[in-house]
Amino acid sequence: MGRPQEALKVVPRHLLGRLLQPGNSDAIAAWTLAEAGRGDTVIVCADMWLYGGLVASRAAATEQSAVDERLEKLRQLKANGAKVHVIATIPRLSLRTSDQQAPHERTLANWAAKADLPSAQAMLAAPDTAPFPEKVPREVVEEYLRVRVRNIDTLLKLVDLAAQGEFDSLVLGQDDANKTGLHVEEQARLRQRIAGSDRITLLSGIDELSMNLMAGQLAKRAGHFPTVRVIYSDPEGAQKIPPLESISLDEMIREHLVLSGARALDSEAADVDLYVYVPYEKPYALPGEEKRPQSEAFVAMVKAAMAAGRRVAVADLSLVNRMDPFLAEAVLRDISLPELQGFASWNTPANAVGTVIAQLVCHRLAETSPKWKLAQRLESEKTHQAFLFARMVDDYGYQTVVRDAIKGQTEGLSAQADPLLNLFGPVGLDIRLRLVQWARETFNSHYLGRTICLQPHGRLVRFRDSKLEVVLPWPRIFEVEARLDLRLEDTGQPCGEAEDRPNP
Fold this sequence. Notes:
Layout: H1 25-35, E1 41-45, H2 46-50, H3 54-57, H4 64-79, E2 83-90, H5 105-112, H6 120-125, H7 138-163, E3 169-174, H8 182-194, E4 200-204, H9 209-222, E5 227-232, H10 249-259, E6 263-264, E7 272-277, H11 292-307, E8 312-316, H12 325-334, E9 342-344, H13 349-368, H14 374-406, H15 425-446, E10 451-454, E11 459-463, E12 467-471, E13 481-485, E14 488-494
Parallel strand pairs: 1-2, 2-3, 3-4, 5-6, 5-7, 7-8, 8-9
Antiparallel strand pairs: 10-11, 11-14, 12-13
């Protein structure tokens, strides 16, 4: 957020809550209304603004009356002269609505995934005849349904506000989904209300959408919309619905391209080739040796494209929330990591591919900007390279290599850990020791002392010794936070034959 001559502004971090502690919605609204004025562009996460965050949006604690009051405050941003872009979540099937409901969360999610259920509204209207799941208290089921109804009704109100011009755009993202379930009817109702609006987008995924929307805004501001050719490891896989999604992989990717300000172009004239390793049939378990040949064949395709001078980005969707180890080994052996335009393999397919698309768009804008001075471009490249390396550290180094080794240390520990007596401390230290060593070895092998060409200045820059730190951001082991002070120095030399490209 910010006027063209001003720096980006973000809500103070202490207002955003922490895992199971909701953010301070009213304080966030007050801060934003005080900071945002005429000419500003504001990107609002509706889940935080209305409920206190994504996790809080799944809980029953927030009354509809409080949500409606906060919706009115959201309308004030437009009245103040700001351009307003809103992101909101279509709820997933697995919701933790309260402590009482928590033991039944998985049972309810499996039940809600059935294809023949009435809508949540219909079941609440006639609970005596509704096909509720067995062995779950009726009041628990009804609470779950009320949360869904509250959230969908709120999304419909957001759609109406966008249609009335209160927002410049509204993006609705479907959180972790399934081919069937209550969300299918909810999506259909939303699509019906959206029909004909050019301000509103509904697509698969949620965690990555803020990056996609920001990339799209930057592309629009620059007046440059990078073209992307999508290349699949298996073309048939592009037409299948990936795990945790509700539409085909190809449709999902094209939606993310549009939101990010990119344009699909099935031609060598495209600015960037996006190589997509499609999901495995069993995406939750590490593959056996039989998968190694196809992983290595995919990396060979990427290597050949880079050798031919193509700009390349890679999205590994083979597994959920970890990188395929055979793919990772081949990448580390055969690919020049710093020359990738984007890379990710984290969490759901939509999360990973959306992240890569946002990164490649932003990097392409930086590479082609005629106005950026060398110092600005160097800072931008540091961020790009740090993000690339952080994804490798988390998606492979942690999720595939380290995480399984430390799982036993957290059995029985509560995510409600007291910050003054955090029982996750010992495992957090173990993770730091293991992962920082792995990260340092990888950085020294693939980055340190090597040079890359910085465009559009045509200047050779070199990787210096950098500071690496890893922490557990929450009292759980689902993910790590890689903090990288990555350092690049200008060699003062133009790019050319003397360029010392990294040799994996």
